[in-house]
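Hey forum,

I'm writing up a methods section and want to include a predicted complex as supplementary material. The small molecule is zinc ion. I've pasted the protein sequence and the SMILES. Can someone with a working setup run it? I'll credit the forum in the acknowledgements.
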Amino acid sequence: MVDGESQGGVTSLGVLVDEQGAVRFASDLIRLRTVDEPGRSSEEGATRAVVELMEGWGWRPTLVEVAPGRSNIIVDVVGGGGPGPVLAFEGHLDVVTEGDVSQWTFDPYGAQEIEGRLYGRGSADMKAGVAAMLFGVRAMELAGPFHGTVRILALVDEEGMMLGAKHAVASGALDGVTGVIVCEPEGDEVCPVSKGAVRLRVDFIGHMTHGAMPERGRNPLPALGRFLGELEELQRELQSSHGVHPHLGPTYVTPTVIEAGTAVQMNTIPATASLYIDVRSVPGVDHEELIERVITTATSAGSPDGVAAQVTVIDNRPPVETSPDDPVVTCLLDAHAAVVGEQPRLGGVPGTTDGTIFTRDAGVPTVVYGPGGKWIAHQVDEYVEAASIGRYARTYAIAARDYLTRAS
Ligand SMILES: [Zn+2]
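Reply by user p_vandermeer:
Happy to help. Structure tokens for the complex are below, copy them as they are.
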């Protein structure tokens, strides 16, 4: 337990967080390598650690298998203070790869604490956030009865295709939830908006032939070249019609991968050429319209050469735009101000989070706010300020109590 003296006004709200326990638990999670890698992903070790912690507190978590070795953890903490809404906290247990270990100054799975910084893959993104939400809700529970219910979602595969979040919605884990706090690292910003993302593959289908007789085939490469130029134009149009969002910046239409032919067969015109596109959109950009536009543009780029175009939507995540006046946002603004002593900045998430899926598939307002820097995720020497874990736990506890009291 934390010394009550140092908490000032915060103790008057009756929130005492086991801050050292929270840091220890975050460290335990960092030591468990839960990397998202095709065919080998497993959060099992971390899942076990979270379940053990919860059961030690008398909670009764439900495990829902999403894929072999990968289970979502869902638990309801009922306040016992009368009926009220359901507020959810969410975090993911998988991490991205450490990459080239020789680039790291610290063991990516050592959870070393040096000058107040806790280092390791997943420290900021987002094992600190998971620890903070767990210890925050525990402190809230110990502080006495509250209205309604807090639901905790500790999910798998956020860094992959967000299978955990999709499965959570499909299996009813968001039913009845009126707001979700996603505990991803955002550098002390409260983020009610997130960029959207569309991932597309465009295949140009021609006809293979000998390079000496191009007139006997249909080369898909010039079509792809024309299409690339058109994409730049599409980006320019979207940027000028939707402007620069104050928290998210402009919309980007970025070609990322080209696949066509092979270098050892440079005397052959390939049958197909494929282009992958990563679109990052601001609120207001209509994804369906954008996809239609890509289809017609690709088709007309191919037609002069008799090359067909085929567009595959690999993923489609719309932007999130939760009102800054939604209680799930204002409860965090107030709690942050109470704990830190100054108003937090409102911000935006440049990528997508599990919250994107909750808003898209369950229509629930989501907000992103969690310990750790906004730009440190996925980098070498990833770290989180150890003291921020307990601070966020306190903020979560105060915000949740406030949200449930106001809405009851
Ligand atoms: Zn994350």
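Some notes you might quote in the supplement: Confidence is low (pLDDT under 50) at residues 1-12. Residues 18 and 104 are 31 Å apart (CA to CA).
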